[in-house]
Amino acid sequence: MAQRFKSLLSDDSELRPLLVKAQALSALQRHFSDAAPPNLAQSSQVLGLQSGVLSIAVANATIAAKLRQLVPDIIIMLRNSGCEVNGIRVKVQVSFSPSQPEPRPRKLGKAAKDALNGLSQTLEDSPLKLALTKLTKAKE
Known about the structure:
- This protein is of the alpha+beta class.
- It has two domains: 2-92, 2-Layer Sandwich (GMP Synthetase, Chain A, domain 3); 105-140, no CATH class.
- The protein is built from six helices and three strands.
- It has helices at residues 2-11, 16-35, 38-41, 61-80, 110-122, 127-138, and strands at residues 44-50, 53-58, 87-92.
- It has a three-stranded mixed β-sheet.
- Strand 1 and strand 2 form a beta hairpin.
- The chain is elongated, with a radius of gyration of 23 Å.
- The chain starts with a helix and ends with a helix.
- The mean pLDDT is 84.
């Protein structure tokens, strides 16, 4: 379906600029997602690039503030990936709904496992001791 839509846009001379613009925005979004920290990239959307200034939409002021702190580093990473970006403008758009991050199962580190295991050994038989034992065994 996407391929048919793409061929429809590329065949029509009036719609071809729209396809080119969409492909450019998609590429900018990928480069930005690679350059920005994952949690901020998932909460941001590239709006466009005009005169070397990349416009980014974010869902709230907290994300905007953190992105503004990271702008110099992100610009360097974008330039290294071949984007001609001289600045980044961050806009807060409350109506923008960020994509939900995929939940990843968390694993206990060795120190946490050892600490929980040690705690469970000091406890008398109880539901807490059973839960701690299961927790340390399940995450191996």
